[in-house]
Write a structure and sequence with these properties.
Blueprint: H1 2-6, H2 16-26, H3 31-41, H4 49-65, E1 74-80, E2 83-89, E3 97-98, E4 107-112, E5 118-123, E6 131-136, E7 143-144, E8 152-157, E9 163-168, E10 175-180, E11 188-189, E12 197-202, E13 208-213, E14 225-230, E15 237-238, E16 247-252, E17 258-264, E18 267-273, E19 281-282, E20 290-294, E21 300-305, E22 312-317, E23 324-325, E24 333-337
Antiparallel strand pairs: 1-2, 1-24, 2-3, 4-5, 5-6, 6-7, 8-9, 9-10, 10-11, 12-13, 13-14, 14-15, 16-17, 17-18, 18-19, 20-21, 21-22, 22-23
Length: 345
Amino acid sequence: MKRMLDALPKFQSFEMDWLLFVLRRVNPTLNCFMIIFLIACGSPGVDDKKEQENYINYMNEQSRTRPIYEDGNMAFTRTVAGGTDIFFLGAQGEDGLNLTNLGTGKNEQPALSPDNTKIAFVSRRDATRGEIYVMNINGSNVIRLTNNTYWDIHPCWSPDGTKIAFVSDRDGQRNIYTMSSIDGSNITRVTNNARNDDSPSWSPDGKEIVFSSELGSSTQTPVPRLYKIKVDGTGQILISKTVTEHEIEPSWSSKNIIAYTRSDANGAQIYTMNPDGSQVTKLSDGKGGWHPSWSDVGDKIAFVSDRTNAIRIYTILSDGTKIQQLITKNNMEFEPDWGTPPKKP
């Protein structure tokens, strides 16, 4: 709890309901605690007890009538004038809250931390190539983690929150690296392949990483497939069973199932498999789907589709049923991220 409060310095009155949502997500019984918190600390602009009571009543009414995202916090990317920004979907309902809001440059590839207090993301705000940054989930305290002339992209938090896996071409081809999530120190190379690697995702126990790689395919017509490797760089194995279909963007669930994007006769679709490559299952309905991200509990997948001639975020249950459009803003929305599930004790 202290970590979450520390991550929200100097919150304003319009953010108080958002803070309430975050606290409720940690513990749904925190209504009384929040009321005590508001009365004790005083919300901005509230000077006396009567006004405090009115404010609390207003907040309670808002929590009943505003659209609250029931499946937990999500970060995603949306097109805006001048580029793309990172948005947070919580108490803001279907519209989301713009966290980067620069108007220039490009902010993309958000990744929520396991404790839901921070977001790693890629930005070109200070460079011509993408660098990795971290911010609080209200957009404050932005820290730059990488700083070089190469591409550093696709951040993904370790289940214990201490490291971030990412992709970089600093040594030639794109490979997988890890670094400290605090300051970007202790950069360690995980893969050492002669072909491009992309999209790392951690196993629930934090001991392995699944990723896509062009390894083993021709340079003229590369076919990325899924591999997994131990975090210390040993034990790399191919888990894809196909030799012709592209398999990319893996997401490893808390229930030890890997969702990923696979191309077939109908284009990009959402599939799942076991970590050893067995039990391959097609989830999406043939109308297109890519960039899967598991919910914390592993019962639902967010993904992107252009099935309505617009790029939107959808959700689907782990058994392939109940496809629902999540956001309806008149912009392109993509790269949904429910975050790395926290490591279980």
